[in-house]
Write a structure and sequence with these properties.
heterodimer, A: 262 residues, mainly alpha, 0% strand, B: 268 residues, alpha/beta, six-stranded mixed beta sheet, four-stranded antiparallel beta sheet, 23% strand
Chain lengths: 262, 268
Amino acid sequence: MIPNQTTLPKKTGKVKFFTTLSMLLIIIVVSAIITDVDIWQLLTNLGQAGYILEQMSHPDWSYVSVVLGPLVETIRMAILGTAFGAILAFPFSLYVARNMESSKAVSGVLRFINNIIRTIPELLLAAVFVAVFGIGPFAGIIALAIFSFGMVTKLFFESIETIDEGPIEALKSSGANRLEIMRFGVIPQVISYYWNFVLFAFEINIRASTVLGYIGAGGIGIFLSRALKQVRYDRVAVIILIIFVVVLAIDYVSNKVREKLS
Amino acid sequence: MATIQAASEQRPVIQLVNVNKTYPNGVQGLKNLNISIGQGEFVIVIGLSGAGKSTMLRSINRLNEITSGDILIDGQSITRAKGKALRDIRRNIGMIFQSFNLVKRSSVLRNVLTGRVAYHSTLNMMLGIFPKKDKEIAYDALKRVNLAEKVYTRADELSGGQQQRVSIARALAQEPKIILADEPVASLDPITTERVMDDLLRINRELGITVLVNLHSIELARKYGDRIIGLRGGELVFNGPTAEATDSTLRAIYGEAILEEEDNKGEA
């Protein structure tokens, strides 16, 4: 570009933009062909959706008393799963954060394990644990615990890596040992992040735990699955509504608490 | 200051013996330093940026490792000390940093109490239990820097000068023999600078704590120091009573640069 050009120079990179756009379009179209996406089918089956919605618009309110117990179980599963995972995640994160002077080899291995854990979807985890521990909420709790552990650890150790190192140096110079440095120099700086991540994991777990019952891992999911199989959309509606209310309420409370924390 | 000088000859609290520091990239940070500092002295270390002032100060409590030589604190080698022994020596040395290094989200009291941590068992500290006596020590330290009324304020709500005085209180809470101050006033304005330096001087005079301060400013060095130590390129180029550090001596050592730097500081 000529440095003293008087008019605004043309923006370069338009070619790049259109190349990217057409590449994206090609990918989408090819994917659609491979996976047999049929828009026509979507349109012709809209009538079916209308029928289901019609059924759902007359919820079977008497069913509420039946699903209330499983609903409480679902919430309990989410609470326990989050708690177990979060408790484990706390020391783990303090160990693997790169600025915590831990053994490089050990924390490298631990971080690798954590990465693997996070690639496994919770439904898959739950399916495995149902196979191991049998049908029931215990399998669900373990699955949620492992999922929360992976998530909270990842978020938490990354925020530990961004702290102000000054207080660490100050404590070190006053003769504090490693644990004491963490207790007074590191944790006060990150504890509010930790609670934030734990609540976030809890919000996700509440939603996840509602479907875990589908594969026999406890909670309200089993009732949802049953109602669908029996084509009782009036009951499906009740379950969906109840989940909706609970998720909304918990999200609201959790968000309020997180606002207070930051 | 004759009495202080005499005392220093009898009983050095800090001794640097043939201290060398070579950085991994080959740069020599400290060159064969031999310095002895006596109990109760107020010593100021001057030099241009990169002269090794910070490196030297941080070697004294071993936040930096030295390459060869030895550093003795009260006759005990900190260079060879390990684990608990090292931490016990450090406990007797308070440190003040240019950037204050407070936990900003914690209260002033909590920050000052961290100076007491090394006195207690790790288990008690994990639970965060400080004896009542410690809280009194912390509060006394805050009174000494005139910040008693800020005891429950969050550290980040204080001004820079106040934060630096909290960090002085934290060092005091250690009940140290020595206080090292690494550019304590570099990020403060002239008025707060004076307050912080006055606090350090008062602590030195009233409690007999040996104080070692790194400074850019020749003017401040002359105003506060009993003794001035001059470094240039990691070498000891001046070591004597403040009265001997005249403009012409300093100009001979550093050239115009150090006096100019001072002027620049004044403007900034």
